[in-house]
Amino acid sequence: MKNKGLRIAEYLVTLLVIVTMNFFLPRLMPGDPFLHLSGDAGQEIVTFTKEQQEYFAAYYGLDRPLPEQYFRYLTGLTRGDLGFSYYYKDDVAAIILRRLPWTLLMVTAATLLSLILGIVLGSYSAWRRESWQDKATYLFMIIFSEIPAFLLGIMFLTLFAAALGLFPLSGGMTHFAGYTGWEKVKDILHHAALPVITLSLARSGGIFLLVRNTLTTVLGKDYMLTARAKGLTKRRIRYRHAMKNALLPLVTRVALQLGGMVGGAVLVENVFAYPGLGRLMRDAVFVRDYPLLQGIFLVLAFGVLAANLLADLFYRTLDPRTREGELHGKQEPDNGEQEGSSHVLA
Amino acid sequence: MSILDVNKLGVIYKPAGQHVQALEDVSFSLTAGETLGIIGESGSGKTTLALALMGLLGKKEQLEGKVVYAGAELLSLEESRRHTYRWKHIAMVFQNSLEVLNPVLNVGEQVAEPLARHLDLKGRELEARVEELLYLVGLERSWKTAYPHQLSGGMRQRVLLAMALSCRPELLLVDEPTTSLDPIARREIVELLESLQREYGFSLVLISHDLACISRLTRRLLVLYGGRIVEAGLTEEIVEDPLHPYTRGLINASPNYFAFRDLWGIPGEPAGGGAAGCAFASRCVQSQEGCHAETPALQHLSPSRQVACRRGGIMTMLAASGLCKEYHLKKRTLKAVNGIDLEVKHGEVLGLVGETGSGKSTVAQILGRMVKPSAGQIIFQGKPFNGELTRREKGIQLVMQDPFASTSHRFTVEQTLREPLEINKVGGREERQERVLETLTRVQLPADDKFLNRYCFELSGGQRQRLAIARALVMKPALLLADEITSMLDPSTQANLMRLLKGLQNEEGFAMLFITHDLDLARKIADRIMVMQYGAVVEQGSSHRIFTQPCCCHTKDLLAAAFGHSH
After folding, report:
1. How far is CA B105 from CA A239, A240, B109, B456, in A?
2. In chain B, whose CA is at the least distance from the CA of A316?
3. Is B77 within 8 Å of chain A by CB?
4. Does A248 touch chain B (CB under 8 A)?
5. Strand, helix or coil at B458?
6. Do A177 and A187 contact (CB within 8 A), yes or no?
7. In what order do the strands lie in the sheet with B90-93?
8. ipTM above 0.90?
9. CB neighbours (10 Å) of residue B190?
10. Cα–Cα distance measured from residue B525 to residue B529, given in angstroms and rounded to the nearest whole number
């Protein structure tokens, strides 16, 4: 068992690597923030003169050598300063904060929904292993999890929004409608429905498979026979004895999946023109808004990393075998997944 | 009154279209408070039997027969009704493994579960009962909040026991309670089981490899092989005198029962059940062709003993009764052998021990037909003793103390080995040659022309004694008389020779009358021991009993003299 200090150091190093990549990645892209300071794709493009470009570069400090820029970026970060957007002419932190709730809403809702879907169908399948119901569920889940999220999104968009008109085509809420209270909540949920369903369906396959497999393994364990012999109720055997064991690996799985979930969210937001960070990121990439890009990357990566850390700690208290500070730990848990590795944006 | 009646119970597993008969035709009954042991190798169906009694089989397995518990037939019962019998009436202590307890639930909860379910205990009352149970099995109440991985193997066994006893079952099934425990924990668990059984008076079915544990805790015993009962009777009697070759093999292979002897397992691999014929036939040293064809039924050999064997259990190879040998000297009559009864069973090593002059060798000489008994009757393989019977193949052969005297130094190795075959007109020229070479290899002597043509006087003592054994074995004897065969050899040669002989005996299953005054040696090799003094047998019994609990004073004297401490 690793000690706590080492584990924290591990997370710090990971964070530093991410910050560094954040800094260099946008600068590796071809182009320059000042080639076009205004204009969306396809619109008229205002081009700057050579003098203007140099002026802006000097103004934002982009004419300095890279190491110096990097150092200034780092010192800024330690002060909590994410920088100033070239394009939006606003504080990066403020822009991100405005968009963050939308993405948070979508990722949280999709995580919960995919969990529910995965657990319910996974346990249904495991308890009917090898039956036609199991096979049908398996096929259905595999198909949906293999279709890329954005493709699924486009399918849903054309079918349910465009053709059937059941859901709005784009956006996070109806603007200028002046909804308040319950009406507003309903409006937001109505807009979020399709993106959330898309994302959940795309991500629940992994959870389904995990639940199905771990539960099948658990059902074959000695202690399940013990539980049956004790004449316990079916409900207790299933939920207290089997599920508690089977769901433990899910905690880490959900955290590990969060990276993929965020990646999926970026794509899905763009399909549904949803006003979250994903869409903001696309715009920032378009105009090479380095500080904004760095800010978004950082926030997303930090979020995923924090979730991993949380899962790590949570798992420890959940599984008695890894709980520290007790009599004597004898064995490692049999799923080796809880070692902290982090998936950043896919 | 019996509380459990098992009648022709059969269990068939069907993994992927196969047909595996795990249990077949198992019948027994158990009265209230009675203790029953079940032994058998892995895969013999012991655990399957326990699971069937618990009503835990039947979903994927096909069940036959009846299990009647207190008037109710369990196998045909609805799952919902069967629930009410589990744990409350019939509980089980499962085999101790890391995962026999749920790893994420604490000990207290797992002990409390059946109490809440079957006895509707709640709150304080439930807590108190759990603590009482833990106390009962010798665990402090603080272990209530511990998780299974924090327990040692012995503590886990105690928790399992507390859990099983929680609803005060009338029938307790215990599967391998002592395997995987160290000697101290093992003793504690056995003592605990014993005192709990006495206190609560539940009927006990104990499944174990551990014969010491079985003999201590059970009154009756079932021996399972290939899913069938091959022997049933009183534990004490079976362990002292097994009647089925399989049971004897099992007992001989138990280190905790035969502490002094070399360990010899039963040769061959356990057979699965379901096939025609006796399942043990392919490993049995006394099997005949018929054994492979028809399945033997369990029959009473005595009021308390049942054995399933076509040949009536382990056969008696040789039985002598009232054997006497008198030598008439000038003025008095010397009774060298004074009316002894003797029985050698198929495939066993009978150690005949005693002081010099106690008449051991005279017995060997009588049985080897070298001297005529003054009185008495000898039956060999069911027929009256005569030269025809003993001389031929599968007869009696004798190996004597002094190889230099027993093999002619003027013969070559080949002549020595060929001679008995020629005298008895066994086989043709080539077959004899083959037998000679084969036998030489078996006693680990070189089987080449150079060695075959060597004269006996050229051989060392160890080689010459092995040659003497080979001379006896070339006739494929059913009974080998070995009279002090190692007394002239150095310890290393003796060790090699004894291992060789015992190995051959275990493999081919001939019986052996091993005569020696060396108790260390007898203790290492013999299954049964006969102690002689003044031409009479003063004590006989299983090697285990004689060496641990001798009754006769003379035996005690002998043991004290040999091992330096009194038993």
Report:
1. 12, 9, 7, 75
2. B104
3. no
4. yes
5. helix
6. yes
7. B90-93, B171-175, B203-207, B35-39, B220-225, B228-234, B305-307, B299-302
8. no
9. 20
10. 10
For residue A122, give both structure tokens: 């996974």
Structure tokens at A228: 């049956």
Q: Is B195 on the interface with A (CB under 8 A)?
A: no
Question: Domains of chain A: which residue ranges?
Answer: 4-338
Local structure of residue B474 (DSSP, 8 states): T
Contacts B102 to A, Cβ<8 Å: 223, 226-227, 241, 244-245
- The whole-number pLDDT of residue A281 equals 87
* Structure-token pair, residue B236: 């004490």
Query: For residue A220, what is the nearest residue in chain B, using CA coordinates?
Result: B99
Mean predicted lDDT score pLDDT of chain A: 79
Pick the CATH number of A4-338 from 2.60.40.10, 1.20.1560.10, 1.10.10.10, 1.10.3720.10: 1.10.3720.10
> Cβ of B91 under 8 Å from any chain A Cβ?
yes
pLDDT score, position B481: 92
Residue identified by tokens 């015992």 is B502
A residues 260-279 lying closer than 8 A (beta carbon) to B: none
Q: Which residues of A touch B149 (CB under 8 A)?
A: 320-321, 329-331
| Count of Cβ atoms closer than 10 Å to residue B337 Cβ | 30
Over residues B83-87, the mean pLDDT reads 83
Alpha helices by DSSP H, chain A: 4-28, 50-59, 66-78, 92-127, 132-146, 149-156, 181-219, 222-229, 234-235, 244-271, 277-286, 290-318
Our CA-based measurement puts residue A310 at a distance from the nearest CA of chain B, in whole angstroms, of: 20
Contacts of A226 in chain B (CB under 8 A): 94, 100-102
Q: Which candidate, B543, B544, B483, B547, places its Cα nearest to that of B517?
A: B483
Cβ neighbours of residue A285 closer than 8 Å, sequence gap 6 or more: A26, A29, A293
A120 to A126, A129, A141: CA distances (angstroms): 10, 14, 12
Each residue's pLDDT tens digit, B295-317: 888 888 888 899 888 888 888 88
CB-nearest partner of B88 from A231, A236, A327: A231
pLDDT in tens, B225-281: 888 899 999 999 998 888 998 898 888 887 766 666 666 777 777 765 556 778 888
pLDDT for A3 equals: 65
Which residues, including other chains, have CB under 8 Å from residue A240's CB and lie 6 or more apart? B105
Q: Which residue has the higher pLDDT, B455 or A258?
A: B455
B 118-137 residues inside an 8 A Cβ radius of A: 118
Determine the pLDDT at residue A33: 66
- What pLDDT does residue A35 have? 61
B4, B30 Cβ separation under 8 angstroms: yes
- Residue A336 CA, chain-centre distance (Å), reads 22
B105 vs A236: CB contact, 8 Å cut-off?
Answer: no
Contact assignment for B113 to A236 by CB distance below 8 Å: yes
When mean pLDDT is compared across A233-247, A261-275, A314-328, B381-395, the lowest value belongs to: A314-328
Residue A330 touches chain B, beta carbons under 8 Å: yes
Which among A221, A244, A319 has CB closest to B99?
A221
- Buried (b) or exposed (e) across A172-190, using 16+ Cβ within 10 A? bbeeeeeeeeeeeeebbee
Residue B394 has pLDDT above 60, yes or no: yes
Q: Which domains does chain B have, with CATH numbers?
A: 2-89+169-185+202-275 (3.40.50.300), 100-168 (no CATH), 316-563 (3.40.50.300)
- Of the residues A222, A251, A319, the best mutation for testing chain B's interface (the one with the most B CB atoms within 10 Å of its CB) is A222
Residue among A224, A226, A316 with most chain B CBs within 10 A, to mutate: A226
User: Measured between CB atoms, does A328 come within 8 Å of chain B?
Assistant: yes
Q: Does B81 touch chain A (CB under 8 A)?
A: no
Nearest by CB to A231, from B97, B106, B117: name it: B117
